Amino acid sequence: MNDLQQLQERIETGGVVVGIYGLGYVGLPLALRFTEAGIKVIGFDIDESKVNALNAGQSYIERLTPDLIASARAKGFEATNDFARSTEADALIVCVPTPLDHHREPDLSYVLATVEAILPHFRAGHLLSLESTTWPGTTDEELAPRLQACGFVPGRNCALVFSPEREDPGNPTYATHNIPKVIGGMTPSCLQLGKALYEHAIETMVPVSSTRVAEMSKLLENIHRAVNIGLVNEMKIVADKMDINIHEVIRAAATKPFGFVPYTPGPGLGGHCIPIDPFYLTWKAREYGINTRFIELAGEINHYMPHWVVQKVADALNERCKSIKGSRILILGLAYKKNIDDTRESPAVEIMSLLEAKGAQIDYSDPHVPSFPRKRDYHFELSSVPLSPERIRGYDCLLIATDHDDFDYELLSEHAGLIVDTRGRMKESEKVVIA
Asked: What residue ranges define each of the domains in the chain, with the CATH number in brackets?
């Protein structure tokens, strides 16, 4: 029995050990799901604070409660920053960030650094799966050659697959186990092994013909949303100039039972996927002499939205004989969407930076984000401000950046002097400006 046949047997019998690299919003839910399904999981992360928290039964992601961590620990889950323990696992799943660099080009440094850290401990019979969103060709152009340089040939003595994550934090209907999962393999045998592995944890698998198809499918999903959000954001700007409430327009259009999918405008794009993924394709497309003008235009519109919001704040304050400089402004909601604690690429943070640069005194309130998190490009020494009538009255402007259900909108409306609402949560009035 060769190495891949032995791996197949371990997968089929449930004796496979899974290593997950990157214990963030993608990797940790996947680790807990495999553990729940009875699979032994070792979690790897370079952040020692995360490793220590998990091994102490603590959670740093709001929706993943300490009870879930404790249950996983009782079933054998453990976290480590010792990559030498990769030899203990049979399947290695990479779930690390793929951001943009300062030139808005793909930054694969986290993926490649992780793979380079794994390679000294890689062995025949290992399965390597990449889940991080990236450009079509990454798996066969970047990962496969690194394996082959060490004597590992996908489909012969190891397996290599790409299976993009589809996490949607805060979604009450879909979670890791019941979101259909796309997967592509370097060879048919790689695909077979990868599919069999994930079937332990995921209800529905969607096999495709290659890793490139799987990589492109993830980009299409998020570019579809980015383009449509860009469209509705542009419509918002036009409607505002015509003194039309875009949210009323969307509600009316959404009554059509076919041919229309409602997208809602906002202060900009947030989350790790939609603001970033389109640029992975536009960058790769240039290699083929293609200018993806439609995608890039949507990106320009969405990137402009925080500036649009700041101008709406300036106009609203100006109507009250005030300027941004010296005004006290409270940002309501730091997360990139409502009812979660995820602040990655949140437009609220960009808005805070723009307002502060214009001289505003900034605070924020977010029941899901108690203190401002560490970020590469932004830093505020701030903690979430509790809301009370007296505190609300002390601000010149409240800016609804994220419409959490936990906010008491009646309290805000009663005591605020000015509210700029970027989410259409409140009715327009003398004190409420829809931005």
From this structure: 3-209 (3.40.50.720), 251-434 (3.40.50.720)
User: Cα separation of 161 and 143, whole Å?
Assistant: 10
Q: What is the pLDDT of residues 323-339, one digit of tens each?
A: 999 999 999 999 999 99
DSSP 88: G
In the predicted structure, residue 400 carries a pLDDT above the cut 80: yes
Residue 279 and residue 106: Cα distance in Å, rounded?
7
Q: Which of 95, 273, 321, 397 is catalytic?
A: 273
Q: Respond yes or no: is residue 158 known to be catalytic.
A: no
Beta-bridged to residue 330, according to DSSP, are 363, 398
Integer Cα distance of 127 and 192 in angstroms: 11
pTM: 0.94
Alpha carbon distance 309, 268 (integer Å): 9
Task: Name the burial class of residue 332, with classes exposed (0-12), middle (13-18) and buried (19+) by CB atoms within 10 angstroms of its CB.
Answer: buried
Instruction: Kindly tell me the sign of the dihedral angle through the C-alpha atoms of 237, 238, 243, 249.
Output: negative
Q: How far apart are CA 245 and CA 218, in angstroms?
A: 33
Q: Each residue of 276-309: pLDDT tens digit? A: 989 999 999 999 999 999 999 999 999 999 999 9
Half-sphere CA count of 426, side-chain side, radius 13 A? 29
Q: Which two tokens stand for residue 40?
A: 């032994």
- Return the SS3 of 345: coil
Mean pLDDT of 119-140: 97
pLDDT tens column, 194-211: 999 999 999 999 999 999
Contact 68, 32 (CB under 8 A): yes
